[in-house]
Write a structure and sequence with these properties.
Layout: E1 3-7, H1 11-22, E2 26-30, E3 42-45, H2 49-58, H3 60-63, E4 67-70, H4 91-98, E5 103-106, H5 113-118, E6 120-121, E7 126-127, E8 129-133, H6 137-146, E9 153-158, H7 163-178
Parallel strand pairs: 1-2, 1-3, 3-4, 4-5, 8-9
Antiparallel strand pairs: 6-7
Helix pairs in contact: 2-4
């Protein structure tokens, strides 16, 4: 059992939390107005990118030795037409630069809450797959172990530089759903 702290009480935070609970972990949630006390060994930033930047800056001392999952897709929500991080970079890399020693893992950003709850992508019956990118292999392994029994498939997508591509996929998927080209219970699936 692992203690998991989730910053964010929205649909994604709750769906991710439900999966950790299903896999026999203890989950606590922190909302935007809550006081931050002790946090778990695995921390999930289930908030928009700008809020994630604020959290890692304000909580740097508490996050320095933690596994921190960044689920953000740094979308410009005014235009829905671009990412707000430097070209060639990613939100995850920007967050990692804020706190030395933080074990940033990009994950869950290519999933919608509905697919995390149903464990399936749309009507295809393809098992929902969580892709993880990080330079910390031990952090990815810890997340895989903590999700064992959740019903999700988890795949190591490589080093943190792969977060750039994961965020591009997440961005594309979100814009397709927002334009009603796919449903919010659909998205991209991985077939082996």
């Amino acid at each position: 059992m692992v203690n998991v702290t989730i910053f964010g009480k929205g649909n994604m935070g709750k769906a991710i939390g439900d999966n950790f609970v299903k896999a026999d972990n203890k989950v606590s949630y922190i909302g935007s107005t809550d006081t931050v006390g002790d946090i778990g060994d695995i921390v999930v930033l289930a908030v928009p990118y700008t809020a994630a930047l604020e959290i890692v800056t304000k909580q740097a001392d508490k996050l320095a030795d933690k596994i921190v999952i960044d689920i953000t897709n740094p979308l410009n929500f005014e235009t829905w037409d671009e990412l707000v991080v430097p070209i060639g970079s990613s939100a995850a890399e920007q967050l990692a630069d804020k706190v030395p020693g933080i074990q940033i893992v990009k994950g869950f950003n290519t999933n919608f809450a509905g697919t995390l709850l149903s464990k399936e992508v749309g009507e295809s019956k393809i098992t929902t797959t969580v892709l993880l990118a990080s330079d910390f292999d031990n952090a990815k392994s810890a997340i895989v172990a903590a999700l064992d029994g959740s019903g999700l498939k988890v795949i190591d997508a490589g080093g943190l530089k792969r977060a750039h591509e994961l965020e591009a996929v997440g961005f594309l998927q979100m814009t397709l759903a927002a334009n009603e080209n796919i449903s919010w219970t659909g998205g991209f699936g991985i077939i082996e």
